[in-house]
Design goal:
This protein has two helices and 28 strands. With 377 residues, the chain is mainly beta.
Length: 377
């Protein structure tokens, strides 16, 4: 005879599973045995997520018939919603949370980046475009489910941060704003650009204004009087820790470098009555400043020279527009290299000779000075 079994489920939170068999089936050697796995499989086939509360394996009982019942608890799947905007600004960060508290969470995003571990009830997402946001959650009974929402972009957000080091009193314009640089210090400025979908872009400027470097120029002789033409002059800038110093006399650069003091080599044409010296400094940030002064020079020409080849005072007035005459007015030399005491490659004898020299007074004027010089051999 055919073995006959019947299963009956009542769809309540606590279900009763009833199993029936016949005496004939058992007498013929039938051994219907229902363990926990069998009961769970049949319960799940009826729908729902089930956990076995108790189980029973049917004993062999020849000559007997009857029913055996076990109870199975069917836990419903947890559900929750995602709270947060589904219309986002691309490039912006949006906040989301699961509406219900669960035992654990796992967030994932397509088209965006989860900021942080993504294992809490709340999450932050940086969106790069359209996509989806999914949270997988497990309740206290161990049952799991997931919820997904679609994300649609409204527009783009571009957030920019600029850092600028500015020199004091240097004009600077940023996105149409004139940035004040009169006072040293640090300040923050903002600029907003309105994009589509109310997705505004924010520009931020961190401006550091550096104080103007201080510098003072001094000379080897404060009065700068009675300076001998071609005599070296010492120029000193204070303080001495800047990266670059540029020394200028009468618009002629005599030195540029890291040294705060310089001695002019071979002298400078101080021929004008009004002379001008300047030092320009540049600090490590590139900020600059300068100090300058006008000075008056009483020009004293050399009255003798000795072209004997010893390297000392061998040339007269090198670097000037110079003419040399003998006592008869014959021109022996004309040029800028200085007179070496020769005429037509021949040494001129010891004696007194006469000169005319043009000295630059300013950019538009020269002055002619004349006098005599003694040639000694």
């Amino acid at each position: 005879m055919k073995q006959r079994k019947s299963l009956s489920f009542v769809k309540l939170l606590l279900l009763t599973l009833t199993i029936a068999w016949s005496e004939v089936a058992l007498a013929q050697g039938g051994h219907p045995k229902y363990n926990q796995a069998t009961l769970l499989a049949q319960a799940k086939a009826r729908g729902g997520s089930s956990t076995l509360q108790s189980g029973h394996a049917l004993p062999r009982a020849n000559g007997l018939s009857g029913n055996t019942s076990v109870s199975i608890r069917i836990n419903p799947l947890p559900t929750t919603t995602i709270v947060g905007t589904q219309s986002v600004c691309v490039g912006n960060v949006a906040q989301y949370s699961a509406a219900k508290a669960m035992a654990s969470y796992s967030w994932s995003a397509q088209g965006g980046t989860i900021l942080g571990a993504g294992d809490e009830q709340q999450v932050s997402v940086l969106w790069a475009g359209a996509g989806t946001l999914t949270v997988t959650y497990t309740d206290a009974k161990g049952c799991s489910n997931s919820t997904t929402i679609n994300i649609a972009p409204m527009g783009h957000v571009y957030n920019h941060v600029d850092e600028q080091t500015l020199c004091q009193h240097a004009g600077y314009t940023w996105h149409g704003q004139v940035i004040p640089t009169d006072v040293p210090g640090v300040d923050t400025f903002y600029h907003t650009v309105h994009n589509s979908g109310d997705c505004d872009s924010l520009y931020v400027l961190y401006a550091t204004v550096i104080a103007t470097p201080e510098v003072t120029l001094s000379y080897s002789s404060p009065s700068f009087q009675d300076v001998l033409v071609l005599s070296p002059v010492t120029l000193t800038a204070t303080p001495s820790y800047y990266d670059d110093y540029k020394f200028v006399i009468n618009e002629i650069t005599v030195y540029q470098g890291r040294n705060a003091e310089v001695v002019t080599q071979n002298g400078v044409n101080y021929g004008g009555r009004d002379n001008y010296a300047r030092v320009e400094v540049t600090d490590a940030t590139g900020c600059r400043n300068a100090d300058s002064a006008h000075f008056t020079v009483k020009v004293i020409m050399p009255n003798a020279f000795s072209p004997d080849g010893d390297g000392v005072n061998d040339v007269f007035l090198k670097g000037f527009d110079l003419k040399i005459f003998n006592r008869y007015g014959h021109v022996l030399y004309r040029g800028f290299d200085g007179w070496n005491g020769k005429y037509s490659a021949n040494d001129m004898p010891t004696g007194t000779y006469f000169y005319e020299v043009k000295l630059k007074v300013d950019d538009n004027k020269t002055e002619v000075m004349s006098g005599s010089v003694r040639l000694e051999r």
